[in-house]
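Hey, I'm writing a tutorial for new members on how sequence and structure tokens pair up, and I'd like a real worked example in the thread rather than a made-up one. If someone can provide the structure for the chain below, I'll link this post from the tutorial.
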Amino acid sequence: MARVRRALVSVSDKRGLIEFAQGLAALDVQILSTGGTAKLLADAGIPVVQVSDYTGFPEMLDGRVKTLHPKIHGGLLGRRDVPAHLDAMRAHGIEPIDLVVVNLYPFEATVAKPGVSIDEAIEQIDIGGPSMLRSAAKNHASVTVLVDPDDYAPVLAELRQRGGEVSPETNRRLAHKVFATTARYDGAIAEYLGAGASFHWSGMKALEMRYGENPHQGAALYGDFLTVCEPLHGKELSYNNVVDIDAALALATEFLAHPEAMVAILKHNTPCGAGLGGDPLEAWERAYATDPESPFGGIVISTKPWTLELARAVDEIFTEVLIAPSFEPEALALLQKKKNRRLVRWHPAATPPRGRVGRTVVAGMLVQDQDVAMEDVSTARRATMRAPSERELRALDFAWRVVKHVKSNAIVFATDDRTLAVGGGQTSRVEAIRNAVSRAGRLGISLADSVLASDAFFPFPDGLEEAAAAGATAVVQPGGSARDEEVIAAADQRRVAMVLTGVRHFRH
């Protein structure tokens, strides 16, 4: 590629721009720019040529037309290796543009704001930006194109090292990023204007995985997962690790605002124990007591910083991934002694709002809103003669937050600070209860004076009867069964308090 002599710069996100433009000016690169970007550069003392002066054509239509001109797109699209292109450029006074720095109007951020009108949204549909990006990216054999401020520093370093040139490999990588960005941008616009008639998702590959759910399946991770979940130590995350971590984050998010620490243990994408405590060690002990067998090879998440005491306790068993918002230095040093154990720092503030989720099916895709609902159990409808006590309400709230994240059919026996038995993934609700009761019995865990949460309604009274016989004194469930009255009558006969939330939380 020839030396970069002329750059076109026009950005909405001005992060890092002045430093990059100063670097270009020091390399004797002429900078063309528009509007607010040109003013920013000029105010910083960087030589800049207004695009309107360069083209001889003024900006017009409230700035909608400024870079849509043959001197711009001819300078971007003209092939330097085709004599006819060069002849045409000379004949029309078109100079080559060797570098483009453009990012797009913030359409997605605009439409995400409540109350945005259609006119406001349409004004944030960028035309000139995508046009320049696509022209430059199409001609990436001769033009370097930057759409991401994170690429400024490495490209500037390469320009300095290579005497003002950029390698073909870098140009190809940057062109790929451009088309990925414009595809996502256009997809967001199509979704907004179509009001759900189309669905688009795109993301850059973040990690090529050794294999998928099983060794014979290929897999890769796309998007910004590793920004939210920062690997600190251990082997690369596997496909199953990422699925389990995502499930762990969803559960832990239910307790982020809780003053006490919450620790949960997950296995195969479902909780096998959760506990609250004055510190993470106490929460761990309560979670672990639910089922000391299943945590082997599991995932552990804490909503509070990982302490040395918790590290010592968890270090006694084999775990795949440990997750927390931070790790105390002594805890980190101890946990890093096992080279394969994965340690992940969770950044809740970097977590984007949970939006829609998709699942591929044969010749199609299912898309739904993520289940972010969480009901206030204390205001749920009381269905039975006896109301839950304050202690039972606290326990029901805890159990309801956990059962939402158990594979359906899902039930959870709990107190107000720990799970006692978890049943999930069964083909009948009563069988989920029987399995949980059976496991509690084998482990010597008493279910007397416990509460029960059920992710969906009881289709028959038998599940309620089994739970009461095991020791449950209060139940939270959505209600909505044709046999609700029979279930409520069975609860009244056994002095079991029951509240109905009206919201189901299937997790298939």
